[in-house]
Amino acid sequence: MAIPPIAALEIGTTRTVVCVGETDESGRMKITGVGSYPTTGVRKGQVIDLTQARVGVESAAKQAEKMSAVSIWQVLLATSGGHIQAAVNPGMLTIRSADRVVSKEDIEEVSENAQTITLDNERQVLHTITQSFTVDDQPGIVKPEGMRCKVLTLNVMAVHGLKSRIDNAVSVAKSAQLEVSDVAFSGVCAALAVLTPEQKRNGVVLLDLGGGTTNYIAYCNNVISAVGCIAIGGDHVTNDIAQAFNMTQSRAEELKRAEGCAVLDPEASGRRVVLPAQVGFEERMLSCKALNTVINARMDEMFCVLRSKLDDAGVLPHLGAGMVLTGGGAYLRKVSDLAHRVFGLPCRIGLPVNVDGVDTVEQPAALSTAAGLVLYGQMTFEDRGLFSPLRNLFKGVFRR
Amino acid sequence: MSQEQQSGLLLLGVGGGGCRLAASVLSSYGSGLRALGVDTDALSNREAAAGGLNCLLLGGALLAGHGTGGDAIKGRMVAQEDMRNLLPHLQGVRTVAVLACLGSGTGGGATPEIIKSLHDMGIATVCFVTLPFAFEGEARRKAAERVLPMIEAKADSMVVIALDELFSDAGEGLLTHAIQAAEGLVAAGLTLLWRLLSKPGFIRLDAERLHAMVLKGGNARIGFSSSEGPNRAEQAVETLRACRLLRSGDALAKANALLVGILAGSDLRLAEIGEVMGKLRGVCKSDCNIEMGTVLDPRYDGRIELVALAFESWTAAVMPESRKDSPPVLEPPVVDAFPIQSGNRKNRGKSSKLSLNASGRGKFQHVEPTINDGEDLDVPTFLRRGITLER
What we know:
Helix content of chain A: 25-40%
Number of strands of chain A: 19
Largest sheet of chain A: 5 strands, mixed
Oligomer: heterodimer
Order of helices and strands of chain B: HEHEHEHHEHEHEHHEHHEHEEEEH
CATH architecture of the domain at 3-155 in chain B: 3-Layer(aba) Sandwich
CATH superfamily of the domain at 3-155 in chain B: Tubulin/FtsZ, GTPase domain
Strand order of the largest sheet of chain A: 3-2-1-6-11
Radius of gyration of chain B: 20 Å
Number of helices of chain B: 13
Helix content of chain B: 25-40%
Distance between the termini of chain B: 37 Å
Order of helices and strands of chain A: EEEEEHEEHEEEHEHHEEEHHEEHEHEHE
Strand content of chain B: 15-25%
CATH class of the domain at 3-155 in chain B: Alpha Beta
Radius of gyration of chain A: 22 Å
CATH topology of the domain at 3-155 in chain B: Rossmann fold
């Protein structure tokens, strides 16, 4: 069955992005339409003003419709925020058959057990990710079918978030006349678009540096081992600059993009930036060193917080393929140098290489989440079993 | 040129309450005090002017002398508009003591703007602000507390006086009496402090040390007491220790530095000074830096008045070079004893002085904070780490 075009919506803290993707004959996903519009009404990934946020969604959707020549009325939605958490839930099963051989039915049953996760009423499960089986006391089994054992255990990681926060984002889409067919965690989506199978096998951690949040997802031995989000992002850098030098947020953002550097660059030491006069403000000079000191302090702290989270999850020694940075924040100058210094891992910038059609886009790493969400739609549609439970998606999603 | 003008000190009352306080200080201080009031209400301006205080009307064009109606935004706007009217009064001024009653439109709105402008002009500010009585309502209390961080960010030193703490039994008196009595008490304490700063008496403080302590000591608690009779020195110390503004002696016990002023008549005996200081030393920490000064005024014959400024976040680093041999401060500053957490005072004058509370959160002010290990990560990192920025 051919997959219809898939539309993905990311209501980011700084930009709202809509991506439309279509699969070619080989099954490779191509982004055929992109719409992007500055977001207002969202802080740290959370909607604080429905009406303002709706404007961004409508505008981005219109652009994407125009570019892809499809009419969008149903979307997949990416969500993020400090409320997103992950917990590993083990499901156990005593093998009842006389020969103690694990059957297909046993695997289904243990899978069901593992997915029975007790959460507070206000929380909603976004993904249940199968990690690995343990056959009696032997961990790390990928396919236990046919093996002999008494007890079969399956670890499932549940990624969950606050229902109210997710519903708010869904309401924004609804107010823009878009039906939300499914919601996915932004970090998982970015990983789908950016990471290669080899990196996942060797162990890799992806940091998605967003405006209001930073998502992380770590693969060890091809298994998702740590997922999470901290509510700190590029907006914090901008806010720090604005506070340090008494300027507006928009001016601080411009300054960050034009002159910002994540490390204290000796070349820039002693250099001064001219801030041209604006209405009500005279022209003034600013020390590059002071600017980068502010940025470095924030980024260093953010990476230290993330390192502590990855350390707690015990994944740092298993990251043979190092670290990949993506998202808009990855374009901050020398951010990978700083990450390398803090994490002690080889570090590079990751683009959404698992989709086509983003080469011409300016700063493609900023599209990782939306592009990955399109891939997520494709995967769930094809029921490859990575994410479950499979939802009934895309019944007549688009009208040409 | 008068002694007042030479000293470069100006007393500035902001808003109705601030002007009343300034007028009270003016009347009890006597002639020669350089004082000014600014308010948006023409009527209360006239009242303050009747008390001898030179009063400027703020926002005449916008508010037509009708006041802000409790709107702090209006207070801030008119202060921004009319700051230039203050400039002629700031000739030769090095230090301004700002008096304001927070919770109102002008006091709460204009005070932070005025302090910011003074700071930008390079004029040092010592800010004495009162927090409203609890019976004045939650809204006024919240409005007052919102302003505190903004003042703290730019003022060189801030003394917060919670009016509720002035009386141990607030139940019986009339409202007007309570407010008058509170203002009277505050004015008496300020007068004594002002005299200490401007007209030192027999035992005088070195001007640089006094300024270093008052202007760079950070947040402080003020307390005052008065006593008469044969045991006046002992009683005055006991009353001071019981003063609720000093948290019933707790602030004295935790202070890293203490400024004590003794106001008395010409009958003050040397033994009495010794008794006051001896008892206070017994209450304070062994390494507390205590500075003392006296003001003698024949009108105070038979009486002794004490005023104490207790600096809990003071460190030896703020003293002039000559005093660096003083013992190091062993105990960290006690932040819970004061409603506002102080910033890194060591870096005052060198780096940004935004405070570590709500005002430092900028665009994240009204969103759920990101807390990690008890730290609010929405507050800029360079502020929390006390990083000095090259300007």
